Structure formats: C-alpha cells, structure tokens
Amino acid sequence: MKNLLSVIENAEKSHYMEKDDIVRLIKESKYDDELFKAADRVREKYVGNEVHLRGLIEFSNICKRNCMYCGLRRSNKNIERYRIPPDKIIELARKAVGYGYRTIVMQSGEDDYYTVDILKYIISNIKKMDVAITLSIGEKTFEEYKALKKAGADRYLIRIETTDPELYRAMDPGMSHENRKKCIRDLGKLGYEVGTGCLIGLPNQSMESLADDILFFKEIDADMVGVGPFIPNADTPLKDADGGKFEIARKIVAIMRLLMPDINIPATTAMETLNKDGRTLTLRSGANVVMPNVTEGIYRKLYALYPGKICTGDTPAHCVNCITGKIVMIGREVASTKGFRMKM
Ligand code: 5AD
Ligand code: SF4
Ligand code: FES
Fold first, then answer.
1. For 135, which of 21, 101, 180, 298 is 20 to 30 Å away at the CA?
2. Probe residue for ligand 2, chosen from 73, 137, 175 as the CB with the greatest number of ligand atoms within 8 Å
3. What value does the mean pLDDT of the chain take?
C-alpha cells in the first residue's frame, strides 16, 4: 500500500488521487497537518492570497421540498415563514454593494412565488450595480435557467448533497437524483459557473461515498464546490442523528483543493458553527471564498437550515468588518474583483 505522505505529495503535483487513497486519507488523521499544508500551498499557487466575499441574501425560507435534514422543509410547522419583497431584495443588494461586495448570492427555499418574471426583475435591477449574480434557488427547467441567465445571472449553486443514489432517496424524499444531475448539466450547458457540493456526515454516509462525491465534483469540472458538515436540526426527522465532524469536512476541503486546484471553494458557515475558528481554519486548508450574510433583521434568524447558525444576531455591517478582520489576521486579503474562476 502506498504511503499516505507520498499520496499527498503526488497529488500536490498531479492533482490526482485514487479513490482508495482518498478514503484512507479521510479515515486516517496522522497526516492531517501535511494534507492541510499541501492544500494551502496549492491554493496559494493557483488562486492566490485573495479571498472573495459573496454577499448572501436569504430572500425566502418557504420551500416546497421536504429534505430530511433541513429546517426549511415544508413539513416543519415550527418556523415562521417569510418572503422578502422584490424591491426590498434589490435594496439589500444595493447595501451589500455599498459594503464592497462584488458578488450577490440570492438564496431561498424552492419557493414558486418568485416566478421567472419576478426573478428577472430582481436580477436585471441588481445587475445594473455591476456585480456578479449567483442564484441558489433549487431545481428549475432548462428554459427557466435559460431565462434567468439571459436576465443577468452568472452563477448557480445547487449541491448534489450526496452522489449515493440510495442515500439521496432516503434524505430527499420525492426528489429525483437523475433530475438533480440534469439540472447541474443544464446549468453548465447554459454557460453558468456551476457550484455544487455535498453534506458531510449524513446518517449512513460512508467515507467511500464521500470519496465518490469528491471524484464527481472533479469529473463534472465544477467551478465551485461548497461542502459542510450536516448539523442535526431538532425540527426535522434527523434530530437524533449524529451529525458531521468538523475535522472530516476540513479534510475534504483540503483534498478537493489538491484535486481541483483552480476552482472556488468557500469556507462555509456550517464549518464555523462547529468550530469557532472554522472559516479561517478552512481558508488555511484550501478554501478561498466566504459568503457572509447580508440579510437584515428578523429574517436572519428565520433562515434556520440548522441550529447554531452564526451571525444571526449581527448586522451586515458588522459581518463585513468581522470577516475582513479575520482574513487580514491570517495574512490574506479581500479581493476587489468579481472572482470568477480562472481556469488553468
Ligand atoms: N446541516 C447542514 N447543512 C444543511 N443544509 C440544509 N440543511 C442542513 C443541515 N441540517 C444545506 C444543504 C443545502 C444548503 C443550502 O444548506 O446542503 O444545499
Ligand atoms: Fe428546501 Fe433546500 Fe431545505 Fe431541501 S435543503 S428543504 S430544497 S431549502
Ligand atoms: Fe458575521 Fe463574524 S461574519 S459576526
């Protein structure tokens, strides 16, 4: 069997790893430090020291889906639901641009209230502010994605959640794994920058399955990959599940950076929920993006995917200063560009 240190060294140069070796690296913690350092070097070499900030607007917590892990699932009667009106979304985007954000991410549950026409109105108005727009609003048809792209959307986030079809069926009842993959393909065909990702630590998810996820992201040539630990939510059927581990998620980020040197990888909010330095540790293990929340007021608390979400009591102005400080403290800088992927 190959020595894991040589697996890391080799991947740093070739950006390739066998599935078996990925599994072993996830399971073994002896070489974590070397893995994180190698990922940090690859990050610096390919995407540099700049950290891209994306201003995240969580504009509706209404969702027609029923994902087992998620607090926004339609069967959850314990949360107060909200929709931010279109003009208010545009205003939040304008404020975010004022704070220096060069990308606006519009995220919501799968809420059909926001028709393509309404979304086009919002997107075209935000687009006038000279920013990149990322959508994270779930599964739509090819024609819908096409219309949104034409209106000005640049990128789209849609996690595969897991590449294991059986686990997907158990976690996302009533949804089609095939259709989810089709959505990802459609977005690519339409010229979006495509972001995907998975949850780490779902019930019955094996390390082999996580290795498959990583190889899937590479195979489809994803432009962005965001991963985070699954955090059990008391208002869901998975309330008594174990949940994901921070260190495993961090290693997965590092392996992703070794294998996909030029993509954008966020240090996700869920990472900081499990570890108070979660985002900076992740930024030092391969990540180069952070997506601070720019939603205001009561909405922040109500977008409750999982418990313990950070920043729910803070303002957008506070968060931009907070995260900028953290980035500078680790010797990095906040980017001033829109932060598209530079394919190498
Ligand atoms: N823990 C962590 N992440 C979650 N998400 C949904 N529910 C949870 C949870 N309980 C993630 C999903 C979704 C993203 C917007 O939030 O992966 O794609
Ligand atoms: Fe809806 Fe997304 Fe939550 Fe699933 S993960 S219930 S699609 S908001
Ligand atoms: Fe929101 Fe630190 S980024 S409080």
1. 298
2. 73
3. 98
